[in-house]
Design a protein that fits this description.
Layout: E1 11-14, H1 21-36, E2 53-60, H2 66-79, E3 83-87, H3 93-103, E4 105-111, E5 120-127, H4 135-142, H5 155-160, E6 164-167, H6 170-180, H7 183-187, E7 192-196, H8 205-209, E8 216-220, H9 241-250, E9 254-258, E10 265-269, H10 277-291, E11 297-301, H11 306-315, E12 319-322, H12 326-335, E13 338-342, E14 348-350, H13 359-373, H14 377-388, E15 392-399, H15 402-414, E16 419-420, E17 423-429, E18 434-438, E19 443-448, E20 454-461, H16 464-479
Length: 481
């Protein structure tokens, strides 16, 4: 078995290879050892942990054996004297984060590999604020791996002693989503909506949220399938192609697609066009700005879009840029006045909510925007293109060894491109992968994945042709190593 290593968002590994019961116990014990060092009963009111309860929430997704891994983690916590609320069914990641906030707990665990293929599973640690814990915390947990003997208390005994309590953590979260969304507006939207839950924890929750409205909602892939129907539960252009076909055949107004643990959102227009995560975040930003008259800063990762930067300049909004990983976005969200913070993969956090991605809330806000503007989502996108210009985003993932990753980054750092496809490179960003920005604002980026043995190549151009050409340039270079 390989050594346990935390990546962009927790620890992920292949089930039965590295993601084993033994290794899950080791991670759980390290988390328990970390928690026991936290002074949650501090009298210092300036402490971030002042008044927090010495307890954790544990949730899990629809992957193979996820419920057993979650139970195992809870039993290790119980043996260490840490009280745990264990979800009574598979739960969206934002349900875990909301439960932590609602109960004022010190943190929580989500058993999930998010959008990764079905052979993977993983463990995410959530902080007391209801979001991905920062590197300082995950490093502290990682440093405790293999240091203590694993302690374990049988589930029945733990429940009898009150150390484990089974609880519905989804319903309170959904009720909070209803309060944040404008349900009065949504009740009369009259939309025909396709929801694809990709066999993940999104289940039929968007359909439930819209149950008392005049919208017609059809949910597909709402049942649990540990193999996710044979496709990774990632709402991107490749894996949403089948959704687009069903949408066009059924003449829906739009489709909302949730990923494996229901924190990321994909969107498909009525004509079958699949929106990038950048476009999804753009829609959400503009709705909060123009539809809800809210203000605040905008956080993107290094592979964010120039379109949002342009909108932010137009509105005089402060912008922040981070490495890839929602934990970095959460850190800024917790310190600054942030309106939206998000990733290129469709995960977005909102002001007045929590520093956590939430596909169900994102979906309702997209529907709000359509209802309020009384325009199709396609027409809204056309208006954005006319106002701000065309921005086309592409991504390509290729299997890449650790040695090749190191060699590639070494080459790019030592001899960065001066020109890309005939245009001068005016800026190079290298704090997470390497991004080359050309004189017209278009760019290409190469970045090793933090959760899989893959290299990601990204591009953004002002036309489909330009974006593809930039992507091909990056692919050719990466594959030549």
């Amino acid at each position: 078995m390989g050594r346990i290593k935390f990546g962009t968002d927790g620890w992920r590994a292949v089930i039965s290879e590295d993601f084993t019961f033994e290794n899950v116990e080791i991670v759980a014990q390290a988390v328990a050892d970390y928690i026991k060092k936290q002074k949650v009963k501090t009298k210092n009111k300036k402490s971030e942990l002042y008044g927090k309860k010495y307890a954790l929430v544990v949730g899990y997704d629809t992957r193979f054996l996820s419920e057993k891994y979650a139970e195992l983690v809870s039993c290790v916590f119980a043996a260490n004297g840490i009280k745990t609320i264990l979800g009574d069914k598979d739960s969206p990641t934002p349900s875990v984060s909301y439960a932590i906030r609602r109960k004022n707990f010190i943190g929580g665990i989500m058993i999930t590999a998010s959008h990764n293929p079905s052979r993977y599973n993983g463990i995410k640690y959530k902080g007391y604020f209801g979001g991905s814990a920062g590197k300082k915390v995950t490093d502290a947990i990682e440093s405790r791996l293999y240091k203590s003997k694993v302690q374990f208390l049988d589930r029945a005994a733990a429940i009898k002693k009150g150390l484990i309590k089974l609880e519905d953590i989804v319903s309170p979260h959904l009720k909070a989503v209803e309060k944040y969304a404008d349900m009065k507006l949504l009740r009369k939207a009259g939309l025909k909506i396709l929801v694809d839950s990709m066999n993940g924890t999104g289940a039929r929750y968007i359909e439930w949220l819209l149950r008392n409205t005049n919208n017609k909602v059809t949910t597909i892939n709402g049942e649990r399938d540990a193999l996710f129907g044979g496709r990774p539960p990632e709402p991107n252009e490749k894996h949403m192609a089948s959704t687009a076909k069903i949408l066009k055949k059924g003449h829906f107004d739009l489709a909302l697609v949730t990923d494996g643990d229901a924190d990321r959102l994909g969107v498909v227009l009525s004509n079958g066009k699949i929106l990038s995560g950048h476009k999804v975040m753009t829609l959400l930003l503009l709705h909060l700005l123009e539809g809800r008259n809210e203000t605040g800063g905008v956080v993107q990762t290094i592979c964010g879009t120039g379109l949002i930067d342009k909108i932010a300049r137009n509105y005089g909004l402060k912008t922040y840029e981070t490495a890839v990983g929602f934990k970095y976005i959460a850190e800024i969200y917790n310190k600054e006045d942030v309106l939206v913070g998000g990733e290129e993969t469709g995960g977005v956090a909102f002001k007045g909510w929590m520093p956590e991605r939430d596909s169900m809330l994102s979906g309702l806000l997209i529907l709000e925007m359509v209802a309020q503007r009384k325009k199709s989502l396609k027409k809204i996108i056309d208006d954005i293109n006319k106002t701000y210009g065309v921005y086309v985003y592409k991504r390509f993932d290729v299997r890449y060894s650790v040695d090749k990753k190191k060699k590639l980054l070494s080459i790019l750092h030592k001899k960065p491109f001066k020109k890309v496809l005939g245009k001068d490179v005016v800026s190079v960003k290298s704090f997470d992968g390497v991004k080359f920005i050309r004189s017209d604002g278009s760019w290409v980026m190469l970045r090793p994945s933090g959760t899989e043995p893959k290299l990601r190549v990204y591009s953004e151009g002002h036309s489909e042709k330009e974006a593809i050409a930039l992507l091909e340039f990056g692919k050719r270079f990466a594959l030549s190593i």
